[in-house]
Every structure is written in structure tokens, then in C-alpha cells.
Design a protein that fits this description.
2 copies of one chain form a homodimer. Chain A is mostly helical. Helices cover 75% and strands 0% of the residues of chain A. Chains A and B meet through α1, α8 and α9 of A and α1, α8 and α9 of B. Chain A binds a DNA duplex through α1.
DNA sequence: CGCAGTTTTTATTCTGGATGAGAAACCGAG
DNA sequence: CTCGGTTTCTCATCCAGAATAAAAACTGCG
């Protein structure tokens, strides 16, 4: 509990391994994540990983946990920095931007977590269910605020609408190519669609 | 060309294998698709698969091809059946419904194809690129029609908006649970979001 | 030097794709 | 109904690649 955070060389190596795991996980999926590939990316011999983790699954597990945590905290922070009294629909737009930024440029972990969770073995998914729920709760809260402001189309089921919106965001990781379109362009399009899509006609 | 379609027992077994491959592919991803699992689902011994396909990749390849083809044709058919002269935005709504129905209830193949393509090895993805483009072209056409009708928010980039929308649809396969919500509910929410989201403010 | 912490080397085991020899099922001709 | 050939599939096994274990070697600090 005391000094786990100290940035020793060992801690940096360990971090490199987790980062590499997220990197590979994101591109290859759960089953396709080979320790040899992770090792290569992390600039380490494959068995060295076992000094830090007792199994492949444990490593992947941590990469996913980091990802979920990062998504949660980056979005939460972005919301915290918003000026007080902002209409809920604007806060939602902030969350949309933060989620996309995290997914697309800030964190392989978050992207890997979001996109890989469904493929994980049941036991592992179970372990992250709570974190997932917590993150979802943030969004649900935002949607509820929007509804209370009267800015949500009453014909929309809030839960379903939320999942549809999150899907749009999560899927960007599959197609967005930094070389071809700007991140801001994607964010802008997503925000417009969400704003107008949710709005009461 | 002549009688490849005849429904012999052999043809049925073969189909079971492809179906099983799609089933596993959808849940486990490309790397996670084991022939032993496919065999189990198809009620066949694993080596029997090699009677029909010369390699694992060839089997997966076919499952994906079937999926892309099915998505394309189901959506195209739905559009063809729409009354002539329907506003483009309504035709788009029809496509949304057809895509969701295909993905969520009609075809594991389509869902597997749509969700797995990004994970496939380059060579294989290459082989399906054309089919993918063709399917995308249908959507692009619809969006262009909507724009020509003046129903598309001019601030939206049509290409980006389309990908965001398709993402919302494709991701439904990750979360929608037939046991908990009705398919119609999802379709309705998606249609509303698309209609209002794309509309010129 | 000497030792704790870290990493590499070497060896072992496990998993899962693939193959090949032939058994069983099927089928049409006599 | 039975025989020969063809189609379909099974069984045993192989093999490569990957995870893991064990042991050896390195590294920097006291």
C-alpha cells in the first residue's frame, strides 16, 4: 500500500509489459494475444513476463482493468472540469468527446478493454463486470439528467438509446484512421448525431 | 454451375459446418475459433471438416463471405420492396431495420463477418474488401440521396456520419440480449436516432 | 565481494491444426 | 439383394507453436 507507485526501473518494465499487452490485445483479440508478441513489443524476453505475472490470463486481466479504469477516470475528469451549471446535453457532449479521445488516441488499454471484453472467458469477464457497470452508471446518470432537462425525446427508451450511442462511439476504433480523417472531425460528427438524435422533436 | 445447389445430405453437413464456424467466430473472434469447437457445434468430428475445407482459414473465409453476402442481399431486398417514391430518409430507416434484423436474428454469419473483419489477417481481409465496399456503397448511396433531399445536416460530413451510424448498428450485437429487450425496441431507437441525428437542424 | 532483485537461457508440457490410412455409409447396376 | 465403387467420415497420430517451469546468469548497490 505504501510505495507501490514509486517509479523504479522494475515498475517501468512492468508497465511496458502491460502496455504492450494492451497494444497486442487491441489488434489481435483475446485468443490472438501471444506472449511472444507482447514480449517483442515490450522489448523483453517472453519468459520474463512471468516474473511479473503468473499467467497469460493474469496479464490480460490487468491490461483490461487498466483500460476500464482509464476510460472511467478520463471521462469523469473531463466532466469535473466542465463549468458548473452546464446543461446536461452539453455535459453529455463533453463525455462523448472524452470517450472518443481516450479510445482513439490516449489509451490502447481503454480501446482494448472496450473491444475485447465480449471475447473474454466468462470468469474473467465476471471479474470486470463491476468496473463496467460503474462506467455505464456515469453515462446513465448523464442521460437521466438530459431527460430531466426535458431534452430527451420521450419516445426513446433511455437505456436502449444509451447503448446505441455508446456503440457508435466504441465502433469508431474499428474504422477511424488517423491518417485519413481528423479526430476532431469524428468528435464533431458524433456530438451532432447525439445532440440531435436524442433531442425531443 | 449446374447442380451445386441440390440439397444432398453432404450439402447439409457442409452447411452445418459453415454455420457452426460463423457461430464460433462471432463469439470467439478470429484467433479464438478452434476447429474442435466448430466441430462440436456442427456435431461432427474435427477432422471431418477437412473433407469439405482444406484449411481452417478457408472455412473461416467462407463463413465471412456468406455473411457479407447475406447482409448485402437482405438489405438490398428490403429496399427493393419499399414502395417507389419513398423519401430517402425513410429508405434509410428501412435499411437500418434490415441491417439490425440480419445482424441480431437472421444470421450469425453476417454478425460474425461484420464484427470480425477487422481482426482477420491481411490476406483474408483483402479477399473480402470488394464485398465490403459493395455493401458500404449501398449505404453511401442512401446517405447521398438523403442529402439530395435536403434532409441531411449540412454541417455533417456524410462519410463520417455514415460510419458513426453503422457503428451504432454493428455494436448492438455486443449488448443486445433477446431475453431482455425486444428487437423492435432496438430498431425503433436506432431509427429515431438516425432520423433526428442526421436531420438538418 | 556478495546478495536481492531482475532477466535470460534452456527445457518441458500442452494445445490445436493438419494428415493419412482406412472404415462405414451410401448408391447404382446387375 | 448384393456387389463394386464412390462418397463421407473416423481414428490414431504427428507436428509446430505457444505457455510455462526451472535454473542459470547478470546487475547494481551496500
Amino acid at each position: 500500500m505504501t510505495e507501490t507507485v514509486r517509479d523504479t526501473k522494475s515498475a517501468r518494465t512492468r508497465r511496458r509489459v502491460v502496455d504492450a499487452a494492451a497494444h497486442v490485445l487491441l489488434r489481435r483479440g483475446y485468443a490472438g494475444t501471444r506472449l511472444s508478441d507482447v514480449a517483442e513489443v515490450a522489448q523483453v524476453q517472453a519468459p520474463a513476463i512471468y516474473y511479473y505475472f503468473s499467467s497469460r490470463d493474469e496479464l490480460i486481466d490487468e491490461a483490461v482493468a487498466v483500460g476500464l479504469d482509464r476510460a472511467q477516470s478520463l471521462v469523469t475528469e473531463a466532466l469535473a472540469q466542465a463549468p458548473a451549471g452546464l446543461p446536461a446535453i452539453d455535459r453529455l457532449a463533453i463525455a462523448v468527446a472524452a470517450h472518443l479521445r481516450t479510445l482513439l488516441t490516449h489509451s490502447d488499454h481503454a480501446a482494448a478493454a472496450v473491444r475485447t471484453v465480449p471475447q473474454l472467458p466468462e470468469a474473467m469477464r465476471e471479474r470486470h463486470r463491476q468496473a463496467q457497470r460503474d462506467y455505464l452508471a456515469v453515462w446513465r446518470g448523464l442521460v437521466a439528467e438530459v431527460r430531466d432537462d426535458g431534452d430527451l425525446d420521450p419516445a426513446l427508451d433511455p437505456g436502449t438509446a444509451l447503448m446505441v450511442v455508446l456503440g457508435a462511439l466504441n465502433w469508431t476504433a474499428e474504422w477511424w484512421d488517423p491518417a485519413r480523417g481528423s479526430l476532431e472531425g469524428v468528435i464533431d460528427a458524433a456530438q451532432r448525431l447525439v445532440r440531435d438524435g436524442l433531442a425531443a422533436s
